[in-house]
Write a structure and sequence with these properties.
The chain is mainly α. It is built from three helices and no strands.
Length: 172
């Protein structure tokens, strides 16, 4: 009688481990989903960092143009009588304005590309979140549907192994 219990337990253990191993792969999907979402978060951080650097570069460039104007203005103030230049202020203001506008124009393609990349990444992120939620629902429904089948197999398998126990005991 003790041998029968061991057989039933070992049979249940076989089905239990099969069920656990087969359906335990669900964690692989969850890990893949989490890594996908993490990749989108990393892309967002990269985009924001790049955008910040581009803005800093533009501000630094404008600052350098303004400093150039200030230095040139001081040179003209010191040597205006010797150089014979009197209306330099308007000319310097125009050059500074042109410099600032050209720096803004130069950074527009980069900013537009980052905005486009940011929007497309956000849309892909939203689509991935939706797909992950749908996949999770499908996995849960599948697991629920197959759990009944595995329970049935788990319960009927000991009866199938009884034949082998009978055959093994009759040949001794």
């Amino acid at each position: 009688m003790a041998a029968k219990k061991e057989t039933n337990n070992s049979t249940n253990d076989v089905m239990g481990s099969y069920f656990k191993d087969w359906w335990g792969n669900d964690s692989i999907f969850e890990e893949l989903e989490q890594r996908t979402l993490q990749a989108f978060e990393n892309q967002k951080e990269w985009i924001e960092g790049t955008r910040d650097q581009l803005e800093q570069l533009e501000e630094y460039s404008k600052k350098m143009t303004t400093e150039w104007k200030t230095n040139t203005q001081s040179v003209f103030e010191n040597y205006s009588k010797q150089l014979g230049v009197q209306d330099y202020q308007e000319w310097l203001n125009k050059l500074e304005e042109i410099g600032h506008k050209s720096q803004t124009i130069a950074s527009l393609p980069g900013k537009a590309s980052l905005d486009l990349y940011s929007r497309s990444t956000e849309q892909l992120h939203e689509a991935s979140v939706h797909a992950i939620a749908q996949n999770k629902k499908v996995r849960e429904k599948s697991i629920n549907a197959f759990e009944g089948m595995f329970d049935h197999l788990r319960n009927t398998q000991p009866q199938m192994f009884k034949f082998f126990d009978f055959y093994a005991s009759s040949t001794k």
